[in-house]
UniProtKB/TrEMBL annotation, chain A:
The keyword Cell membrane does not apply. It is found in: Membrane. This is Energy-coupling factor transporter transmembrane protein EcfT. It is a multi-pass membrane protein.
TrEMBL record, chain B:
It comes from the Bacteria. Keywords: Membrane, Transmembrane, Transmembrane helix. This is Uncharacterized protein. The chain crosses the membrane at residues 19-36, 43-61, 67-91, 103-127, 147-173. It comes from Geomonas silvestris.
Length: 273, 192
């Protein structure tokens, strides 16, 4: 997410994102690398983290992973947000080692294991920080059947919808006296209100919405065929541009180009039934 | 309500309506996960709503594979929304408890209406999730004694939260069934 200066002052300007592993829109070499390459690179780094046991190897790995992280133009504040949870874990692991082996013998193994765990997960954080959802989605479409990738898309698409629904239901129920404020939920005696006044109406809403979405999709013939076509504006524009150049030499090229899928194979034309 | 004329959409088992409903359960898990990560820092608390919605999904669609589909969709959506810092392990983190809930549903089809059944499944499935991070620590070469100690703490908290979340499911399922909003799960025992 882009930086929003001013209101929050220095503390806010130090970080580029609101929560850990959130996508950060920068122009960096890592951002420009393809999602697949980043995944392979991340897996290599994670595997190396699992193998690095000596201080020298571990030091080198910390350096390489940090360079990879900072090459994505992410700040140290971002790094803290990404590894914060693992630092809490380290605060548990190191004392456990010291407790079992004594401080002298247990300190280094505790630090080593904690560092290895952070190094194991950090490439994943870089992947999420530097890869757009649309890129991941496009990648998913290549490996998953379209019926499953459609469900993933629906799942993502309905996050803001249900977020609004939750806000609306909460507001309405609070007007009726339901104790739904986060502060009130700290008291377990108010939990029945959470389930009866928020979760239950939300489930009824979800059931009705699922019905509407399914009917709407089926009415459009969705799921009737084994394969489906996708509208990809960028591909269409690029192919149209290439076709425009090729038109002078070969008149039939544009139509064929426009009907080419991502993998270069012809995709079935849209049919109406 | 589902009609007999509905076309099967996925895995020769689920209609489009059922699949969309399950994907909404995944959405709710992601939503609550996002909400909790911003406010709470208690170990295992994520399992409260994860188990709640997973068991609810089993109640909504009492067919084998329904919770596994929710687990799969949750992990993929988490990755898409930037919540899967653990990379491919996030898949196992959600799939493992989901498969266990499905397995429990296969063995005891009507467990979602029993508080004791839900509690047992919720606690057990939550504990397995803690086992995933234990696997990573084992790969890193952590000592068994430490692994066991840490796993016990982590599993204890996860089990506690997961169990609490599961306890709320039977009442909601019963109320939705009483109002005819979901099937009672008795028909199609082969699917269940």
């Amino acid at each position: 997410m882009a930086n929003v200066p001013a209101k929050g002052g220095l503390r806010r300007s130090l970080r580029s994102c609101d929560y850990g592993c959130q996508f950060a829109a920068h122009d960096s070499p890592v951002h420009r690398v393809g999602a697949g390459t980043k995944l392979v690179l991340g897996m290599l780094l994670s595997a190396s983290a699992a193998g690095g046991r000596t201080p020298a190897t571990l030091g080198a790995l910390v350096l390489v992973t940090l360079c990879y992280y900072l090459a994505a133009r992410l700040t140290l504040a971002d790094l803290w947000r990404d590894i914060r949870l693992f630092m809490f874990q380290a605060a548990l692991v190191i004392p456990l080692y010291c407790l079992v082996h004594g401080t002298g013998k247990g300190l280094w193994p505790g630090i080593r294991i904690s560092t290895q765990i952070i190094l194991f997960y950090l490439p994943g954080a870089v992947f999420l920080r530097t890869t757009r959802s649309s890129e991941v989605m496009r990648g998913l479409r290549r490996v998953l059947p379209y019926r499953v990738s459609f469900l993933v898309f629906v799942s993502v698409r309905f996050v803001p919808f249900f977020f609004r629904e939750i806000a609306d239901i909460t507001a309405a129920q609070r007007l009726r006296g339901a104790k739904l404020l986060p502060r009130q939920q700290l008291n377990p005696r108010n939990w029945p209100d959470l389930f009866n006044c928020l979760i239950l109406p939300l489930m009824v809403r979800a059931l009705k919405t699922a019905d509407e979405v399914a009917r709407s999709a089926e009415a459009r013939g969705f799921g009737a065929h084994r394969e489906r076509t996708f509208f990809q504006a960028d591909l269409l524009i690029r192919n149209a541009g290439e076709a425009g150049t090729a038109q002078q030499s070969e008149p039939s090229a544009p139509t064929e180009k426009l009907l080419q899928g991502n993998e270069g194979r012809a995709v079935p034309r849209c049919t109406t039934r | 309500m589902e009609t007999k004329t509905e076309r099967i959409y996925l895995w020769r088992r689920f209609t489009l309506r059922e699949a969309v409903l399950l994907c909404f359960c995944a959405t709710f898990i992601v939503l609550t996960r996002a909400g909790l990560r911003l406010h709470l820092h208690m170990p295992g608390h994520v399992m409260f709503f994860t188990m709640f919605f997973m068991l609810l999904a089993r109640g909504f669609v009492p067919k084998l594979g329904s919770v596994t589909l929710v687990g799969l969709l949750t992990s993929l959506t988490s990755v898409l929304l930037g919540m899967g810092a653990s990379g491919p392990i996030v898949l196992v983190k959600f799939l493992l408890p989901a498969v266990l809930v499905d397995l429990a549903g296969f063995l005891v089809p009507g467990f979602v209406t029993s508080a004791l059944g839900c509690l047992a499944v919720g606690v057990f499935a939550s504990i397995t999730r803690a086992g995933v991070s234990t696997g990573v620590e084992y790969l890193m070469g952590m000592e068994e004694e430490i692994i066991i100690g840490k796993a016990l703490i982590s599993a204890g908290f996860s089990g506690l939260w997961g169990g609490l979340g599961s306890l709320a499911v039977p009442a909601i399922i019963r109320r939705l069934r009483l109002n005819g909003l979901i099937d009672d799960g008795t028909e199609g025992s082969l699917d269940a």
